[in-house]
Amino acid sequence: MLGKLKPLALAAAAASLCLAGGAASAKVEGDTIVLGAAVSVTGKYSTNGKHTMNGYNLAIETINAAGGVEVAGKTYKLEIVYYDDESTPARGAQLAERLISQDGIKFLLGPYSSGLTKAIAPVTEKYGIPMVEGNGASRSLFTQGYKYLFAVLSTSEQYLAGAISLAAEKAIAEGRKPQDLTVALAFENDPFSQDVRAGVIDDASTYGIRVVIDDKLPKELNDMSATLTKVKAVKPDILVVSGHSKGAATAIKQIADMKVDVPILALTHCEAADVIGKFGAKADYTLCATQWAETMSYSDDLFGSAADYAKTFEAKFGYVPPYQAAESSASVQTFVDAFQRAGSFETDAVRDALAATDMETFYGNIKFDESGKNIAKPMALRQVQNGSLVVVAPTKWAAAEMIYPRPKWSDR
């Protein structure tokens, strides 16, 4: 059994899971290590919640099939108990409390989104419960002094900063000064996107690039036509947008509908929004931030290479894994590594083992600083080229050069 979706959640949202008749009463039941997670089965984050659960479940299945987890000479299987947080921070916090206080869960995997992670982290900290997460990237999570929170992903200020560096490189190659460039910003007013914005602002300041539009967009982002009208009038060199899956889809659709021409367009959540599948050629030439790509040269003994992981995931779930799934699988691997090195299920021993993590995975290297964030893995940028996502930065992993500038709509 991979996991248990509690009766208060919607079973139909996770066909690979089965409903639990009773709660897990302890952190370890017989020969099974029980992890817990509140994940978005319903609500605005349900798409990425599915990717998160699929990543967790693939890791659980693969680890169990490989023989399980050896701790202090005994072998254990893994299982996850899930609740649906309904994409609501208050609900996530309530369910974390329930997992710990009522279900006796001692080890938590993170939810999807920075907002939900921010709601749950104070609960796990209060009880001294280790939580490994791969989908809460807000840098403000790592300024609170938490000792039990560990994140395998790169923090949010790094997501689209690379787009600014690329723009500066292109300007220099053209004989222009980066200071002559302008950038337009359109960011959902939520913790994650505002942290992405902060990183872009910092990099723009470093290069002397002038911000000409800086719009905070409402949550449930489904219309950014007012911002795009300004973009058409001001004609910036770079347009940067972050608004989770709905924001990415809205941006691609409305930029095409309004025929907005901009030399560089950079977004978060291209994969999760399936902008290629939904919009086809309209998504071409978009720069997409990614935590991971299957073409990168990462590997481990469990999944093999990044490409091997992608093939395994697609064979099981029927779609190419977005990075949200990969980082979720890596979160489970991180817990397993800590269990084995701790040789114990005592929460502080596991916490200390997590703090000392230094490992290689198919997802990238994982090593935590004192704040609990991963300092060993950079972000990457992919560009949509002819209907495919191709890594264009950092140069070390680039599979192709960025197509620049984006062709005007009149020339397509």
3D architecture notes:
The protein has 412 residues and is an alpha/beta fold. It folds into two domains: 3-154 and 295-367, Rossmann fold (3-Layer(aba) Sandwich); 158-290 and 379-411, Rossmann fold, CATH 3.40.50.2300. It has twelve helices and 20 strands. It has helices at residues 46-65, 89-101, 114-127, 161-173, 191-207, 225-234, 244-257, 270-273, 275-279, 306-317, 323-342, 347-355, and strands at 3-5, 18-19, 28-29, 32-39, 69-71, 74-84, 108-109, 131-133, 149-151, 182-188, 210-217, 238-242, 264-267, 287-290, 299-300, 304-305, 358-361, 364-367, 380-385, 388-393. The strands form five sheets. A seven-stranded mixed beta sheet has the order 11-10-12-13-14-19-20, sandwiched between helices. Strands 1, 2, 3, 4, 5 and 6 form a six-stranded mixed beta sheet that branches. Helix 1 crosses helix 11, helix 4 (161-173) packs parallel to helix 5 and helix 11 crosses helix 12. The radius of gyration is 21 Å and the shape is elongated. The N and C termini lie far apart (50 Å). The relative contact order is 0.13.
Which structural traits does this protein have?
single chain; about 400 residues; Rossmann fold; 2 domains
Briefly characterize the structure.
The chain has 412 residues and is of the alpha/beta class. The chain has 12 helices and 20 strands.
